[in-house]
Amino acid sequence: MYKHASPQRSDEAVQGLAVASSKTSASFVAVSVTIWFIMAQMCQGQLRAQLGTTPNIKHIVVGRCYTYVTIVNPSLSYDCEEIWRQFEEAVVHQSSCNVSVEDYYQMFNVMPQIWPCNRFLFWSKTRTLMHSYAAVFRHFWTLEDTLVGYMFNDLIWCGQDEDSGFDFSSCPNWSACRNHPVYSLWRQASQNFAETACGNITVLLNGSIVNAFNRKSMFGSVELDNLNPQRVDYVNIKVVTDLKGPHIESCSHGSIVDLIQILQSRGFRWTCTDNDQTLMILQCIQDPKQSSCQTCANSLQHRTSLSSD
């Protein structure tokens, strides 16, 4: 546990500064260095705490599992304690950069899950809007709605080389190693989610960035490759741009064209929509003062008046 400077010590530092103004410059420098050192230690402790394994991770994961099978989807029956044991076994006996997808096989074997067709929603760089969209159209299911996604969403974890427990001080970034324990779990979860996809599926992409379809993203590198054209009827792409712009990519421009070509080459049927009205309305709810929101409102009002005539 990292300790912050106590209030008493901070008061002493302030008093030291006051005295230093009447003493030699050397004393002033000494006090300044002391304060800098204290602040550096405080910031360092906060940084390490953010990078380490999420505190109380076992209670969070097991608690989420019980919530899921009791409230979210009570039709399912899983052994939450066994899932945790398999997860712990995969992580704590490995170094922080040596946990592969294979290490999680046993955990996934004790928590199989299949969803009905026509409910799969994929996304890339549209997380906030995706959750709003899924909340409105409640028949959609995302990876975060699966048991594994619900249990591990927004958590960090890694083991230690010299110990059999979790490292709560520091974990490497995803980019530091291919076999990162967090990346490997989400990679396998994404693969399973894509393999079970069937019927009409939806993909939300961000048209306000370059490479809205990125081959290095989880959708581009894992999920797309594991979609089965024999199981998927249509891939419905929805490209959404920020209300304030910029408008960089669309169904006919940029990396989205590359995605469509890949789908065609693999025998998928597809549709692509720019600026879906529902997605625009969801953005306008969050930022109604945008000029494009007024245009959308006028259009809806005009349609309503026409239908009532």
TrEMBL record:
Keyword annotations of the record: Disulfide bond, Hydrolase, NAD, Transferase
Listed GO MF terms: NAD+ nucleosidase activity, cyclic ADP-ribose generating; phosphorus-oxygen lyase activity; transferase activity
Top enzyme category: hydrolase
GO biological process: positive regulation of B cell proliferation
Record-linked Gene3D superfamilies: ADP Ribosyl Cyclase, Chain A, domain 1, NAD(P)-binding Rossmann-like Domain
Keyword rRNA processing: no
Domain of life assignment: Eukaryota
GO cellular-component term (any): plasma membrane
EC number: 3.2.2.6
CDD domains according to UniProt: Rib_hydrolase (cd04759)
Pfam families recorded: Rib_hydrolayse
Family: Belongs to the ADP-ribosyl cyclase family.
Protein's UniProt name: ADP-ribosyl cyclase/cyclic ADP-ribose hydrolase
Highest classification ranks of the organism: Eukaryota, Metazoa, Chordata, Craniata, Vertebrata
Name of the gene: LOC103356685
